[in-house]
Amino acid sequence: GEPTIVTTADPAQHEGTYSFPSVLPLGRGVLFTMATASEADSSVVVLDLKTGQRKTLIRGGSDAQYVETGHLIFAAAGALRAVRFDPLRLEVLGDPVTVLDRVMTKATGAANYAVSRAGTLVYIGAGVSEMTAPRALLWVDRKGHEEPTGAPLRAYGTPRLSPDGTRVAAEIYDQSTDVWIWDFAQETLRRLTFDSPT
Question: C or N terminus of the chain, fewer CB within 10 Å?
Answer without folding.
Answer: N
